């Protein structure tokens, strides 16, 4: 796995690079600003980019803009975004694009090395990795899709873990149930949300989007 790191904080940037190299991951370049990052992507053609949301000169959205541009230049590039706190607009847009190989973690998650590396590998393998704190903080937005009220409490719990990017095996381990039980819950979720099989759509992404757009305190079926 070849990685480029874009982070303006030199201490965190070098710490990330050292951590990844200790795991035998090839950090081909590090960058302190968006322009340097894009040059590194063009030169090294990495598999994954780890990108800070806020970078010089304005420390607003330079990292996100650069990540979008890097993805345009190299469509198969996986991107793991790091942020000090939840940027709601970007986090929801991340899933709304329905693009594989994207992740969003809070920087505090980096200190939990095993969780960080798990998310990194998931994104590199083409999956989605959303920080659980990001998921919980996003549950304050729009009115719920009324179909979500059809879900049982357990189905709602499974959907929340899907929103973090976990696959069925990982959800089964988290909930200490069989993988077959999770397959059944997922099928029920798709049915209750009227998500029919369709090669043109990713039903897991569609289900998660409806979940993230739900307001807090919505009812679930008994």
UniProtKB/TrEMBL annotation:
The keyword Ubl conjugation does not apply. It comes from the Bacteria. This is DNA-binding response regulator. It holds the Pfam family GerE. One of its GO terms (molecular function) is DNA binding. One of its GO terms (biological process) is phosphorelay signal transduction system. InterPro entries: CheY-like_superfamily, NreC/VraR/RcsB-like_REC, Sig_transdc_resp-reg_C-effctor, Sig_transdc_resp-reg_receiver, Tscrpt_reg_LuxR_C, WalR-like, WH-like_DNA-bd_sf. PROSITE patterns: HTH_LUXR_2, RESPONSE_REGULATORY. Keywords: DNA-binding, Phosphoprotein, Transcription, Transcription regulation. Gene3D superfamilies: 3.40.50.2300, Winged helix-like DNA-binding domain superfamily/Winged helix DNA-binding domain (1.10.10.10).
């Amino acid at each position: 796995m070849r990685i480029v790191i874009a982070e303006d904080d030199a201490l965190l940037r070098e710490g990330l690079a050292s951590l990844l190299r200790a795991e035998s991951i090839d950090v081909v370049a590090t960058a302190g600003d968006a322009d340097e990052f894009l040059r590194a992507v063009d030169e090294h053609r990495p598999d994954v980019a780890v990108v800070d949301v806020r970078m010089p000169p304005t420390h607003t959205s330079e990292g996100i803009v650069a990540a979008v541009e890097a993805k345009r230049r190299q469509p198969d590039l996986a991107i793991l975004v790091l942020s000090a706190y939840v940027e709601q607009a970007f986090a929801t847009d991340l899933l709304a694009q329905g693009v594989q190989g994207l992740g969003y973690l809070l920087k505090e998650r980096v200190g939990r090395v095993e969780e960080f590396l798990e998310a990194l590998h998931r994104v590199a393998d083409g999956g989605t990795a959303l920080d659980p704190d990001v998921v919980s903080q996003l549950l304050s937005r729009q009115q719920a899709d009324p179909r979500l009220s059809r879900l049982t409490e357990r189905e709602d719990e499974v959907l929340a873990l899907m929103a973090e990017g976990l696959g069925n095996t990982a959800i089964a381990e988290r909930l200490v149930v069989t993988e077959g039980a999770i397959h059944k819950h997922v099928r029920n979720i798709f049915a209750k949300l009227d998500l029919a099989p369709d090669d043109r759509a990713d039903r897991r992404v569609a289900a998660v989007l409806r979940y993230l757009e739900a307001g807090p305190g919505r009812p679930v079926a008994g």
